[in-house]
Amino acid sequence: MPINRVKEKRMYAKRITSLPPYLFAEIDERKEEAREKGIDIIDLGIGDPDLPTPPHVVEAVCRAAKDPLNHRYPSYEGMLSFREAVAAWYKHRKHVSLDAEEEVLTLIGSKEGIAHSAFAFLDPGDIALVPNPAYPVYKNATVLANSIPHSVPLTEENEFRPDMEKIDGEVAKKAKIMFLNYPNNPTAATVEKSFFKEVVDFAHDQDIIVLHDNPYSELTFDGYEAPSFLAVDGATEVGIEFSSLSKTYNMTGWRIGFAVGNTEILKGLRLVKTNVDSGTFQAVQIAGIAALTGPQDCVKANVAVYRERRDILIDGLRSAGMEVKKPKATFYLWAKVPSGFSSIQFSMLLLERAGVVVTPGIGFGENGESFVRFSLCVSAEGIKEACERIKGLGL
Ligand SMILES: *Cc1c(COP(=O)(O)O)cnc(C)c1O
Q: Do residues 26 and 161 both lie within one domain?
């Protein structure tokens, strides 16, 4: 229904009309169109676990939902018991000591914390260093804060890591925050602690706040262990890390994550949050405690499932003539687009002629253009079928 507006007033704020279309929403539309045409879709597009949340976590939320104590507003920063569970998890998994009261903040999913960080640290015209390609929220939240995303290229030659030395000196001097994400979405690139040390030195020299996004830290393969950014000396002086239960415990729908690290930085984020949300449902936090402190074989089982799917998809894509590296983490494969196609053209070809949904690399930034992202959130059978169909295209 069109709204009748007084003529001289714009309906939407410029900050939202200047946003690029949210890629995943657009792909959903294309997918629907294909479905309506009767195409049988195998969705290797969006990264959303198809496996259920572990039963002990579901049971914990059911119990907690029945307790009237959990029906009222939660605290802004999250239940202390949840934050203590996060601190214990970080100690055990990442060898990082955190003060649960001062250095842990509960989030309504890490996306919420990432997006609100832009409002905590950026004034209009301020610069954020944003990797390209990247999870779109870093750039879009910066745009929503009327600030300037400065693209930092992640290239194959540099193993999809930013080259801090190549960042323009004036830009580095002005930049206020830097977004980072390893294990990386969409490239599946991983790093060692030595890389984070370089980042910490750069951030110290240039007085930049580092926001490290680490939702895939537990989905690692072949003996690789993803370090926490905070495990590097000096990191807590310059940054925070976002983590999430979404990918580790198949809890994307539950909306719970956390930010940890520098107390002053977390205070800024908390101040924004106290004014726009009222915390995470306590029953969900209690379920989060069950996930973080309960048996972890569910995580091992998850990893085993993704590893098997990864290997099937790699073999299948390679035998279909595509070029793809074997990643050590995440549930994505970042594959080269065959020559002669743009990433959107190739994605549309896969959708229309094979019924296979992938995400065109350009949706993550111009530097993603010669790639497409396959996610592993479909059964091994589905992946095999997708590979057969792609092989049938005779690329
Ligand atoms: C999935 C994802 C998130 C969002 O996780 P939530 O905790 O569900 O909000 C954040 N960052 C990256 C890179 C992701 O892939």
A: no
CB of 243 sitting under 6 A from ligand 1: no
Spatial distance between the Cα atoms of 38 and 59, rounded to a whole number of angstroms: 38
The whole-model pTM stands at 0.96
- Domains of the chain: total: 2
CATH no. for residue 347? 3.90.1150.10
Nearest Cα to Cα of residue 51 among 217, 224, 218, 246: 246
247, 255, 284, 334, best to mutate for ligand 1 pocket (most atoms within 8 Å of CB): 247
* 148/83 same-domain check: yes
Of the candidates 88, 144, 98, 154, the one whose C-alpha atom is nearest the C-alpha of residue 119 is 144
Task: Say if residue 40 is in the same domain as residue 170.
Answer: no
- In angstroms, what is the span from residue 110 Cα to ligand 1's centroid? 6
Work out the number of other CB atoms within 10 angstroms of the CB of residue 146.
17
For residue 130, give both structure tokens: 């944003």
The Cβ of residue 51 has, within 10 Å, a number of other Cβ atoms equal to: 14
- pLDDT tens-place string over residues 15-61: 888 887 766 777 788 889 988 999 899 999 989 999 999 999 999 99
Looking at the fold, whether 131 and 172 belong to one and the same domain comes out as yes
Identify which of 330, 90, 93 has the alpha carbon closest to the alpha carbon of residue 190: 330
